[in-house]
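If I may wish for something, please sit down with the protein I am sending here and say whether tokens and residues agree:
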Amino acid sequence: MTRVPLTLIKPFRALRPAPGRAAEVLAPPYDVLSSAEARERAKGKPWSFLHVSKAEIDLDQTIDLYHPTVYAKAAENLRRIIDAGVLARDDTPGYYVYRLKWRDRVETGFAAVASLRGYAENRIRKHELTTPVKEDDRVRQIEAVGAQTGPVMLAYPEAPAIDALLAREAKRAPEVDVVVDDGVRHELWPIHDEASLAALTSAVDALPALYIADGHHRSAAALRVAEARGVLDGYFLAVLLPAHEMTILDYNRVLLDLNGLTPDAVLREIGRRYTIEPSGGPVRPARADEVGMVLGERWRRLALKPEIAAEAALSADPVARLPVTLLMKNVIEPIFGVTDPRRDKRIDFVGGGRGIEELERLVSSGKMAVAFALYPTEMRDLMAVADAGAIMPPKSTWFEPKLADGMVSHMLD
């Protein structure tokens, strides 16, 4: 039987805020807030999408986050918001130009649904492993609410034709223009005319690949749901953004103890591989082979010794060149004995969105023994890892600004 060619993306009928209601609905992604933070954010906001994405906030605070009642509550809350007319589904399929503005950064992409076959066949490329618990959680959420409510962030390589088409559409007044709690401005322009839809579809199909930037659990869960439903050619909710506009912040490391060493012994061991320069304040690395370190409430700048740095730079393995790999190989594994950062409870991760000062606070408070500030992973390195079919170490990328939950959702028909 001949398989019908599929497009990498297609238009969809978005479930989205009714006119004038977006400010009441839009919420941070489900996985960037704790339950306590979400509960606080949603106070006095009955239409906040947190009631869907973090439905435990409407239940007893002691409830297991993965209890069936949580998913049932999410479905109940979504139906309540739809029945109230706060969310409405478009009558005709479309794409949706989505612009994010944060500080001095502007990113203009568009929402679509992306091919699960393209994902399975590596036209939509991954760079992370998923964890079963988190993947199962997304499967249950999708099945319970009958929708994909959190978009996967996809990056597309250089494509001036796509950029130009989106810029043209964004010359109109946006249908949504909202600044949310964290200062990010979210704007949306629906596209429904056939010529523009066809042009975007064709332009994306001409790309060599798309790249998952953020949302590996959401895309993996969407594939599982489709397979369970017997849907052979399914799609998942995504927002495509130009790689050259996307921003990856540092994703830093903190350690609970010094692995039985004294601070002086730690410095001696690090000195075998790095030059160490004291600093009077926070250190933000300027390149991949530099690290900022907080030890004993003092900042230091670490620079990998030239011969070690040169060897890594010449490696054919794109993972070996990553800032996080250099730190793991030269410090965290040999000195602190952490070989499995996914499971070792002595290591934790601090996203760049919380600021480099958070590292100093954690160490000075005694909650952590040492902290390391990393140079951010670059988009070209992410794409190189994905092209090689390789996997990045956990917590290698922190994207800002974040897409908002509730802006567009994909209902499963």
Notes: Residues 282 and 357 are 7 Å apart (CA to CA). The first strand starts at residue 9 and ends at 10.
